[in-house]
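From the pipeline queue, job 12 of 40. The input is one protein chain; the requested action is below.

Action: predict structure.
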Amino acid sequence: MSVVKRYTINFADGLAGWSGGFADYPVGQEEFYELESGWQALPESLPGNGLFISGNNHSDDLFMFIKGPIDGLKASTPYSLTFKITLATNAPTGCFGIGGAPGESVFLKAGATRVEPKPIVAETNYQMNIDKGNQSQGGTDALVLGNIANSNTDCTNPIYQIKVLQTDAASFQVKTDEGGSLWILVGTDSGYEGITSLYYTQLEIVAIEAK
């Protein structure tokens, strides 16, 4: 019988061992890109707290991500994962922006790796040490769940709303490390040359031992 493990990461009471990070921007330009992440209260229109992450996409390619470990799986064993991501976004639907839309051109990705996902220096830029793909395309280590546009269509009055994105059953394949652990990665790959600010509130991950 296949082993099924379920993980729920709720940011209502803290970071739960998770952290934020950034890639696809020039080294030393953190202040110019207005990079920020941490545990914060949600905007006034919404109750509770979340893992906040924000950046100004001057490079037309900024990747903003959160990461954290899961364990208790079988060692060196292939698993199929599904993801359900709950976040607060103020990106409206059907609006224009520099480089792309603030909602439809910001793509949400999720994946898992045996090694810790982190930015590394490649010449003069930070790039990820794993294969997340590029913008609307997924990679070996991450797949695209959708975009961050919410149901608001008033482009002059962005408001935060809760949005849930999820994958189909058993849609991502990965092999655990020698200790039965994985690193989970969730992030946005942006073609919108402006500020994107999100609050992640809950992540649900189901790991099913692959046959």
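Job complete. The longest strand covers residues 195-209.
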